[in-house]
Every structure is written in C-alpha cells, then in structure tokens.
Amino acid sequence: MQLLKYLQAQGLGSRKQCQWLIDNDCVAVNGEIRNDGKSEIDPAEVRTLHIDGEAVQAVPQPYFYIVLNKPADYETSHKPRDYPSVFSLFPDHMRNIDMQAVGRLDAGTTGVLLITNDGQFNHRMTSPKYKAAKLYRADLKHPADETFCQSLKNGVLLHDDDETVQAAEVVLENPHTLLLTITEGKYHQVKRMVAYCGKEVVDLQRLTMGTLVLDENLKRGEWRRLTQEELEALLASVA
Length: 239
Ligand code: URA
Known about the structure:
Oligomer: single chain
Order of helices and strands: HHEEEEEEEHEHEEHEEEH
Mean pLDDT: 92
Bound molecules: uracil
C-alpha cells in the first residue's frame, strides 16, 4: 500500500496531516526517512515506525480485527451519553484509528464485541443476509420452561417490524438462564424477544459471534487481536 494511506490507516491524522509529516521529513520507516507519500510499503515489513523521532507502535496490517470482552456500563458508541465509550478501553495511540464496533451491545450487556476498521467485514458480520449466529446467555428475573423456549423459537413480532424474528436455538441452562442464538442484530433484540414472551432479562452476556467463542482468559475490559485462524474462520463463515 502507499505510504500516505499507510500512515492514515495507522491513525496518524488526516490525509493532509500525514502528507505534511511526509513532506517535512518526519516519517522514518525501519530507520529510514521516507518522503514520497506514493511510495509503496508492505505493512508486514514495518519493524519500526518513527514520527518526528518518536517511536509509534505500528498496527501490523492495514486492517485489524480485535475482540473485546465488553464490561457492563460502557457504551458501544464513539459519542456515549451516560457511560464511558468502549473505545476508551484502548490505549491513547489507538484513539485516532478508525475503530468500528461490529454491531452494538447495550451498555449493560457484556461479552464478545468485535472491533475492526474493515468495513466490508463489518457489513458481512452484521448483515442479516449472512446470518452470522450470536449466542447469548440471558439471566431471567422469573423462571422459564420449555413452552417459553418454544415461543421464542416460533417467532415474535417486534413492534417496529413487519416480520417476525425467531430464535435459531434456545436451551434452558437452568430455569433462570437461557442460552439463546439469534442471527439478526436488531436493537435490544434479545431483551425485546424475551419481554414479548412475558419475561424480563436481568443480565445479558454475548458468548459467541459467528465462529468466535468468548475466551475464558480474556477478562472483562480486556481485548486482543484475533488470531489468523480465528479471522479466517470468521471470514469463511460470511463468504
Ligand atoms: N440483544 C439485546 O437485547 N441487547 C444486546 O446488547 C444484544 C442483543
């Protein structure tokens, strides 16, 4: 990719700002000053990146794919209203990167939240067309039974929709806990489906997104890059 695009993808500023850095000999890649924005760069070959003499921890590829174990009381938004943003959980040098969440989780919901700058991947993972399955553990205020699970599978009509939405799978882990799989990502979908069938969700956790399973070692608030295998499996599932 071109050096100018590479710097932008690293979150180092607008096109104009990055061009200014290049024109003013501020950019050194692998110890060498680079002053041609159109010159080609292989992101995988970048061992060091210095801006005006300061080392920058380069994101190793033009696209990145991150899994965050979202804690409660964070909003999936760049402009949060009531709680801090999930993006505030990342270090300062990543703040300027175009980070987008792959679907939203409500402020109180915890668990798997993918974050990427790959718009096409994001679209595929969230588009109902590709039916990426999401598994949730929902704790209920009042106990449920098999009839309740069947109602969720039969489908419910959410009030702003003209089509019913069905749970792809529902398992009662215990009378107060449902394991529920859906393939869409509508606003408050799980809570609204459960409410439609007459119960209330008191705690909600997303355990999987497509083929990606919540990692027991990843504590709430922690994040990591997807491994190549995890990424390939996800890409294959929405190809
Ligand atoms: N369904 C909900 O109700 N909330 C979420 O955060 C995700 C799915």
